[in-house]
Amino acid sequence: MFKNIIIIIACFILQFLHAQQLQSPSKEVELIFSLNDKGTAVYEVKYKGQAVIKSSRLGLKIKNGTDLFEGFKIVKSETARFDEIWQPVLGEESHIKNHYNEIKFHLVQNETNKKLDIVFKVYDEGVAFRYQFPFNESVEYFVISEEMTEFNLTGNHKAFWIPGDYDSQEYVYNETKLSEIDNSKLDLANGIALKSIQSNYRVQSPLMLKSDAGLYINIFEAAVVNYPVMHLDVDTSTFQLTANLAPNAIGDKAYLRTPSTTPWRTIMVSDDAREIVGSKMILNLNEPNKIEDTSWIIPMKYVGIWWEMHVGKSTWDYAGSQNAQNAGTGRMIPTGKHGATIENTKRYIDFAAKHGFDAVLVEGWNVGWEDWFGNWKEDVFDFTTPYPDFDIEAIMEYAKSKGIKMIMHHETSGSVANYERHLDRAMALMKKYDYPAVKTGYVGRIIPRGEFHDGQTMVNHFNFVAQRMAENKLLVNSHESVRPTGYSRTYPNYIAAEAARGNEFNAWSIGNPPAHETILPFTRLLGGPMDYTPGIFETKMGIYDEGKKDYQLHTTLAKQLALYVTMYSPLQMAADLPENYENHLDAFQFIKDVPVDWQKSIYLEAEPGDYLTVVRKDKNSENWYLGAITDENARKTSIKLDFLDPNQVYVATIYQDSKNADWKDNPKAYQIVTKTVTHKSYIQLNMAKGGGTAVSLKLKN
Ligand code: NOJ
Ligand code: CA
């Protein structure tokens, strides 16, 4: 069943400038590579004969050395073909095809005699390339001071972009022409402080684009390992994008030695948006799974002591910030609002057990929250000392008696050096009390000071944590981390990450506009699962606090259900308060039913910024689940169920917006309709403004 063929087709000795082409297996995507008259490597990408990337230069700036940019000759090129099917431990698909044609150019710089290899993989959904620094007789150490990779676009495309902030991706997407990108025009008073935006014309990757001719183009990267994150500088008049690597505290970009490689730079392209959103190219470009025994890597649905802090009903801290100086001394005066108490945790465990959830997350269980925010201290948390009202042993025994797992929380408040110092003891505590998973957090600026979340040091930290957790058979869900670039293929215990603007923003800011969840699958989710924390039923924050009456979800309740299908993650939270679910048990049934690990996924309809409809088949049954979402516009569509087994009859349960629903004034108006369907049936979806539909299609007995 598995095919793994690498055929070396040709090996040329080339002395002259000579353009070489390579097509994808379908022949629709084409790469053209040559050296220009300065001996600089240049490439072009075409799709169905149309230019996608015009002649663009490749190269790197080297600190205290000759740049790897000009004066090259091609010594040799090798081509190969690869066609394989692999099985992810958890995923949108049980089998993933990795099929591409490859060409590797061996270059030598005339003046320095330095070798540089550039490898291209040409997939049906786009092109990936990376730089390789081969072993040159002796090991060489070098510092990259900038990557000069260009992506020269063919026109003033529409772009879905967030500002190039080296410390955070938690922004609302802007949808403008490339020529209109300008960070100075952004209203950043929307729940996030301006952090590390250093140029008005820098955006983050993945950058999703649409040309006037209807081509969907996505610029991103894969397998970011021992290298900083790539942002993109935009020339708003020529539409040239240039790589900009997140620097370290002293302005260097990457410290490397030979042999080594950069991450893959990716250009996805299609005239059908569904091909982009369904692409597994980013995962495919990562190294295969390194964990032998994967029996402990399990999907999970969880609830937690979490939203109640975000809406201000309870607090993470036990004693309030005025007691910061007494933290951990026993002299703290409790505020009476602490969320992580034994009683409250038991209440969540009972709720999880009653409704068939796997796990309970508890935030605010450990000493330190009195002054966690603002980078005042290097050692805010030790990750092992519970507050006096959180008896970790009693809670674990209670959870076990109810068949529930506990999810640990490690908020580092950006103090990474402190976290690394405590990591072994923190993991030992998790093992002692049988916590299978941890949610980590990196709120605020990084300590050591001057480092950015997106720099090489932090990339290595996030990957190191995934590896150390894997050695201890622990799952990781990181918040405020580098955005994933497919590393969950290599370390499938890296089960989810936030690394984008999650549902939490709706609790305490102007929130996420209705289009937000239609863009994330084209951007953040291409790199791996997101812990978006859907399932908020009580959509208006004014009910918790009169002062927050302007804050609300920008979706209907039915759309919150649909997000469990549209926003892929093997770790999904039912994020609202238990009491809010008790008031809507009929709708809650969908969250209880929906699986989080899949056999197959089919993107039926997709348009970034507008709508998305996806249907997925459960990994462990014959049942299918559909999620459809729209932006601020109401949407009607008709879905043919021809993906169903032709020999079976199914019961469709449709959770939809009522006729008079809309996200702003009537978000909780939903209906549940049940009907018998076959593969010949159609279902009509009527989505409200900011609405959505969730459907379960279960085999009829
Ligand atoms: C931000 C995270 O995204 C959120 O989930 C968490 O509750 C807070 N930090 C506190 O750690
Ligand atoms: Ca966050």
The fraction of residues in strands falls at: 25-35%
Q: N-to-C terminal Cα separation, in Å? A: 32 Å
Radius of gyration: 25 Å
Task: Write the CATH architecture name of the largest domain.
Answer: Alpha-Beta Barrel
CATH superfamily of the largest domain: Aldolase class I
CATH class of the largest domain: Alpha Beta
* Contiguous helical run count: 12
In this entry the ligands are: 1-deoxynojirimycin, calcium ion
Class by SSE composition: alpha+beta
Strand tally is 37
**Total of domains:** 2
Helix percent reads 10-25%
Let me know the largest β-sheet: 11 strands, antiparallel
Uncertain residue segments: 1-16
Q: In the CATH scheme, what's the topology name of the largest domain?
A: TIM Barrel
Overall 3D geometry? globular
What does this molecule look like?
This protein is α+β, with helices and mostly antiparallel strands and 701 residues long. It has 2 domains: 20-284, Distorted Sandwich (Beta-galactosidase, Chain A, domain 5); 300-596, TIM Barrel (Alpha-Beta Barrel), CATH 3.20.20.70. 14% of the residues lie in helices and 33% in strands. Strand 24 (359-362), helix 5 and strand 25 form a beta-alpha-beta unit. The longest helix is centred in the middle third of the chain and has 17 residues, at 416-432. The chain is globular and about 70 Å long. It binds 1-deoxynojirimycin (NOJ) and calcium ion. 1-deoxynojirimycin (NOJ) is lined by residues 306, 363, 411, 441, 443, 479, 498, 502, 504.
